[in-house]
Specification:
The structure holds two protein chains of two kinds. By secondary structure, chain A is of the alpha/beta class. In chain A, 31% of the residues lie in helices and 19% in strands. Chain A has a five-stranded parallel beta sheet with strand order 6-7-8-3-9, with helices on both faces. Chain A has a four-stranded antiparallel beta sheet with strand order 2-1-4-5, with no helix packed on it. The two termini of chain A are 24 Å apart. Chain B contains nine helices and no strands. Classes of the chains: A alpha/beta, B mainly alpha.
Chain lengths: 245, 280
């Protein structure tokens, strides 16, 4: 069932390529320290509407891979094309343009703004980019908060949320602008089976076409330590090998 | 140890013993140059962002700048009031009293303007701004950077300089101006109160008239420019130290110390430039 393959090569011309990675090498911190594995010479092509899970053990450089794809780290080698643009050539505002088309969910508490409420976290991109009034932005994300079952915690400070809520709030924030491509760093790490099921089901719905997107399928790439937890999500799986652990 | 390593150690030992101060001075000089270059680049980036994005997200950024002004002003006002009245009591009161005793009370206004309006008011307010608000900004921004919140902003397509730096620069510069005016007024009033307690024969009307006569139009320009520059420099330096380089949480306190030292040096530097402008 698990079509695990190292250095997947999916060359070919496609107008709807969202992410094309060629010969990418990144080294994770732990892997660098221990000489463990890390994505080296990775080739990957993600087309519009596809959902990929990149599997790798702890310290294998998954987070570094996500950071590199999102433009927060430099690749050691190789090229990354996002929406047809080489990320090496992107500068300042070009990156902002590309990032508006993709949503990033970080690992470890999702890097929420702890001094803001959940609602403020989620509406911030709308206030900034669409210049919504606070009330207008709240109405706009109401449906999203309901879908993600966050209505009950909307007024809580993000810094005081439990571990199970933080990735969901991070996801809501990433989805607020309805990006075309979602990059998720280990979203189900340290979650209990119930929470994991929720994530697999929800991302599967997003991948097939969710009401929040007007039924349009969302392109996604998630990293995970254990691909078997994604069974039923309809995701293609690629392994980037073992890590330090 | 290799032969080359032994040779290097042999050279390094006398250098450390005899020329330690020279090495430290050299190191400090290059550190100063590095900071100046970094601050210069950060200033240009902030200026560029401030100009090119002045119309972007006005509904979010402008209220943030106003909130920053209110926050800084409200936070500092009691301390500024305390320091101003204290300065009035300790320094100005004595000066007024001594000048009156030696029959030089006509000079009171000139000295008040030179000491309080031109120098003490802006300097003390800037120092309070730096210690109470500036250091807080370094900690806030340094922690945000260390915890990856800055990258989270970038991931949302939000320019961190536009969102985090511009409101602080505007808020701190304008607050510094407003607080300095309060500081000057309260110091002058406090000083006169002490003089009054010491039975100095100086009527309030005469005191105010002397000050008004000594004030020139250049003083208003100078106080405005000086306070805006001091506030802007402190905000810029604190934001630079907090944001410009990746920090670990343990490094935030060090960055705060650097911000304080650099801000003091820069404020004194700009103060000297303003003084030279006055003298020329």
């Amino acid at each position: 069932m698990k079509p695990s393959k190292e250095n997947v090569s999916t060359h070919g011309v496609g107008a709807a390529d969202v992410l094309v990675v060629e010969g990418l090498s990144v080294v994770g911190e732990e892997a660098r320290a221990s000489g463990g594995g890390a994505p080296k010479g990775l080739n990957l092509r993600i087309r519009e509407g596809e959902f990929w899970v990149v599997e790798g053990s702890s310290g294998s450089g998954k987070s570094r891979l996500v950071e590199t794809l999102a433009g927060f780290s430099k690749a050691m080698r190789g090229t990354v094309m996002l929406f047809g643009r080489n990320t090496e050539e992107l500068q300042g505002d070009d990156w902002a343009e590309v990032r508006l088309r993709m949503g990033v969910l970080f690992e470890e508490g999702s890097r929420l703004f702890p001094q803001m409420t959940v609602l403020e976290n989620v509406t911030l991109p709308l206030l900034y980019h669409r210049e919504f009034e606070a009330e207008e932005a709240r109405e706009h994300v109401e449906e999203l908060l309901e879908t993600l079952e966050l209505t009950s915690v909307a007024s809580r400070m993000a810094g005081r949320l439990g571990r199970e809520w933080k990735p969901r709030v991070g996801l809501a924030r990433a989805l607020a602008m309805r990006p075309e491509f979602l990059l998720l760093d280990n979203p189900i790490a340290n979650l209990d089976p119930g929470q994991t099921r929720w994530w697999v089901r929800f991302l599967s719905e997003l991948s097939r076409g969710h009401a929040w997107y007007g039924g349009r399928p969302v392109t996604m790439m998630a990293t995970s330590e254990d691909a078997s937890r994604w069974v039923g999500a309809g995701a293609r799986i690629v392994s980037i090998g073992g890590g330090a652990g | 140890m290799s032969e080359m390593g032994k040779a290097a150690s042999a050279i390094a030992v006398p250098l450390r013993a005899g020329g330690g101060w020279a090495l430290r001075a050299g190191g400090s000089f290059f550190e100063l140059l590095r900071t100046a270059r970094g601050l210069g680049a950060f200033f240009l980036i902030s200026l560029g962002v401030g100009v090119t994005k002045r119309g972007v997200a006005r509904g979010l950024i402008y209220p943030m700048a106003r909130r920053e002004m209110a926050r800084v002003g409200v936070k500092l006002l009691p301390m500024v009031a305390f320091m101003s009245v204290g300065m009035g009591f300790l320094i100005i009161g004595q000066a007024v009293s001594i000048l009156t005793r030696v029959g030089a009370q006509d000079l009171t206004g000139s000295i008040m303007v030179a000491v309080v309006v031109r120098e003490l008011g802006p300097a003390v307010t800037a120092l309070l701004m730096l210690t109470k608000v500036g250091t807080g900004a370094v900690v806030e921004l340094g922690t945000a950077r260390a915890l990856g919140e800055v990258e989270a902003l970038e991931a949302l397509g939000i320019d961190p300089v536009h969102y985090l730096v511009i409101p602080r620069i505007v808020g701190m510069a304008l607050s510094n101006f407003a607080l300095t005016i309060y500081c000057i007024l309260m110091t002058l009033a406090g000083g006169y109160f002490v003089a009054f307690l010491q039975n100095v024969p100086l009527a309030p009307g005469v005191y105010v008239e002397q000050i008004a006569r000594s004030l020139q139009w250049i003083d208003f320009v100078l106080v405005t420019l000086k306070t805006l520059v001091f506030g802007g420099v402190i905000a810029m330096t604190c934001c630079y130290e907090g944001l410009a380089q990746p920090l670990r949480l343990a490094e935030v306190s060090e960055a705060t110390t650097r911000a304080v030292m650099t801000s003091v040096v820069l404020c004194v530097f700009f103060d000297a430039i303003f003084l030279l402008q006055m003298l020329i």
